[in-house]
Specification:
Elements lengths: L5 H21 L8 E2 L8 E3 L1 H9 L3 H12 L12 E3 L3 E4 L3 H13 L15 E5 L11 H20 L2 E6 L7 H12 L15 H14 L1 H15 L3 H25 L4 E2 L9 H10 L3 E4 L2 E10 L5 E7 L7 H14 L5 E7 L3 H13 L9 E7 L2 E2 L16 H22 L7 H22 L6 E2 L2 H5 L6 H18 L10 H11 L9 H11 L1 H11 L3 H20 L10 H24 L9
Parallel strand pairs: 5-6, 5-11, 6-7, 11-12, 13-14
Antiparallel strand pairs: 1-2, 2-4, 3-4, 8-9, 9-10
The structure holds arginine.
Arginine binds next to helix 11 and strand 11.
């Protein structure tokens, strides 16, 4: 059993009542297929079973719908508004009662767990999220940025729901390229190989390029590089030291990016699984899955065939005895299932690796490395990052963009906007510390939001101008919405606009000061209330389909509904105002603020008191 939101509970009730009514009134068994209403004016749910039923019973669908309606109404009292609506050729529309909506909102407001009424999962899973995962001595590129941003959001959502998440950085820190790097280090910076020496290789990526060039032009160097691989693998002191130094330097650079992005991740690179690779090969051989083919050890795949229609091999050990990227992933699956107790493993990489993961998962299953009944392995693919011209993302001079440069540029631009905005507002002054903090939150937030708001599997165009715009579906806009909503809520609560009151605290005040149930009088407040109520639904959807853009869309729509509400419903009114109405409106403001803040937090974006 999975956790259900109030919205899902009612859908289940409506479905059950429909099934009952079908059999009682028409002696028919049919799946009512109750769906979410496609438009707000149709209510909250709709059902078009009367059409199918009418056909089967040779009756007019509208008549069938009318008879269903009459039988349903008494059974849905309190939950759905009556009379139910029969529309068009025989659609039945269901609309939640205001009492149900307000009771749900009150529970969100009062949730003692501080989770805004989002239900805890029936089964708390242990989820491993494998994300970011750049390669040592190579550039951490925009693909890794996407993986980092998407992966972090998935972790945040799963953690918020109550799952136990292990955030793993599967760093590319092992492989034959290290032979080349170590050999080149011996040639060009031998002092770095001495014990106790700190390594300063300068730009590691440039170092990699020079090493590669040396490797490509000199067969003797190649020979020496291969010997270094062997030395590294057999645990040779000097080779290990050189390797560690290389990893150390890369790690420092990666950590700067993680710090700026406010991303927590645990490093467990490919090298970690090195001791388990021979064991994996032994398992594959024991199960009769691995076969020698031209000196290499392979597993022949099901469903993957080459041009002649023959099964394609997945190489697990090369002719020279070296292991593959895929072999490491097999060992990682086993480790994560057996040692980490993972019930779900998510791999956040570009869509280009889809085949790799499909093959690895298949071999893991056939080798019994995991039980598909108990563990789900999911590749979470994403599209490319493109430049504004729709071509591959590059600097003006055609080089790959360094992540740190990209993020710093976004912060710089955000800062310029912010400073200009402050200058335009008479009487507004901010100190340098605030400007720096705000510019970082806006710039970094803009990059994250722009990535997350576009459908994960699609390619997306990177545009500083669009992502930093204060209008439209952007981070600065959503951050602005938060500061506006929280300002309104504070003012309505009689607090000074600048007071540092947490939204959660404000909600508690609303919850305790209004002993009476909320009222939603105007259409705009009903619409806002209904949307607020659906926060948990969006998160449960995200838990299963792993598509963060749905959350961005939800928040953007929330801001629009809030604007309509604020235009039409005065929040602060004269002394003659209905106390209950005013309390309810204040509660709607506080809840909107809290949901926006939480939603942005799940996207890794910080809110600010002023923007
Ligand atoms: N290092 C790889 C890359 O840069 C990504 C690793 C993804 N995770 C994994 N378990 N294979 O493409």
């Amino acid at each position: 059993a999975t956790a259900r939101t109030p919205y899902q509970q009612v859908r289940a009730t409506v479905t059950a009542v429909l099934v009952e009514t079908f059999s009682e009134v028409f002696s028919a068994a049919d799946d009512p297929m109750v769906t979410s209403a496609s438009r707000a004016e149709f209510g909250d749910y709709q059902c078009n079973a009367a059409m199918r039923l009418g056909k089967a019973l040779q009756q007019k669908p509208r008549d069938v719908a009318q008879r269903l309606r009459e039988a349903l109404e008494p059974r849905l009292a309190g939950v759905c508004q009556v009379p139910l609506e029969v529309a068009g050729p025989g659609f039945i529309n269901f609309r939640l009662t205001d009492e149900f909506v307000t009771a749900t909102l009150s529970r969100m407001l009062r949730d003692p767990r501080g989770k805004l009424g989002v239900p805890a999962p029936a089964v708390k899973q242990r989820v491993v999220v494998d994300f970011s995962s750049p390669n040592i001595a190579k550039e951490m590129h925009v693909g890794h940025l996407r993986s980092t941003i998407i992966g972090d959001t998935l972790c945040r959502v799963l953690e918020f729901l109550g799952h136990r998440v292990v955030r793993l950085n599967h760093v590319g820190d092992w492989g034959t390229q290290f032979g080349m790097l170590i050999e080149y280090m011996r040639e060009s910076a031998p002092q770095a190989l001495q014990p106790g020496q700190a390594l300063e290789l300068g730009d590691l990526v440039a170092f990699y390029k020079r090493a590669k060039q040396r490797f490509d032009e000199d067969p003797a160097f190649q020979e020496a590089a291969r010997a270094q691989v062997t030395r590294l693998q057999s645990g040779d002191e000097e080779a290990r030291r050189a390797w560690r130094a290389l990893c150390e330097q890369s790690r420092r650079e990666f950590d700067r990016v993680y710090q700026l992005l406010d991303v927590r991740i645990e490093e467990r690179g490919e090298s970690f699984y090195n001791p388990y690779l021979s064991e994996i090969v032994r398992v594959l051989e024991e199960r009769g899955l691995a076969q020698e083919d031209q000196g290499a050890l392979c597993v022949f795949l099901e469903q993957f065939t080459n041009r002649e229609g023959k099964p394609q091999p997945l190489i697990v050990r090369k002719r020279d005895g070296g292991y593959m990227y895929a072999t490491t992933d097999l060992a990682a699956i086993r480790y994560r299932v057996q040692e980490d107790g993972a019930q779900r493993v998510l791999y956040v990489t570009d869509a280009g690796q889809a085949t790799h993961f499909a093959q690895v998962f298949q071999v893991a299953r056939r080798a019994g490395l995991y039980d598909p009944e108990r563990v789900s392995l999911e590749h979470v693919p994403f599209g490319l990052v493109l430049g504004e011209d729709g071509k591959k993302f590059k600097t003006r001079s055609g080089d790959t963009v360094r992540l740190m440069d990209l993020l710093e540029r976004a912060v710089e631009l955000a800062r310029a906007d912010l400073v200009a905005r402050i200058a335009e507002q008479p009487g507004r002054q901010e100190d340098e510390a605030y400007i720096q903090r705000a510019a970082t939150a806006i710039g970094v937030g803009a990059v994250k939001y722009a990535d997350l708001r576009s459908s994960r599997t699609a390619d997306y165009r990177f545009s500083y101008e669009k992502m930093l715009s204060l209008s439209g579906n952007t981070a600065p806009y959503m951050m602005y919405v938060f500061s506006r909503v929280s300002g309104i809520a504070r003012k309505a609560a009689g607090l000074p606009a600048e007071a540092a009151v947490e939204m959660s605290e404000l909600m508690q005040r609303c919850a305790s000061s209004s002993a009476q149930p909320m009222v939603l009088r105007e259409a705009a407040e009903q619409a806002l209330g209904r949307h607020l109520m659906r926060f948990g639904d969006v998160l449960l959807q995200l838990e299963s389909d792993l598509m963060p853009h749905q959350l961005c869309e939800y928040l953007f729509e929330l801001s629009q509904r809030f604007n309509q509400f604020y235009e039409q419903c005065p929040v602060v009114v004269g002394a003659d105002a209905d106390e209950r109405v005013q309390q309810s409106r204040l509660a709607l403001c506080a809840l909107t603020g809290a949901v926006v803040q939480r939603g942005l937090d799940l996207l890794g974006i910080q809110v600010l008191p002023r923007i």
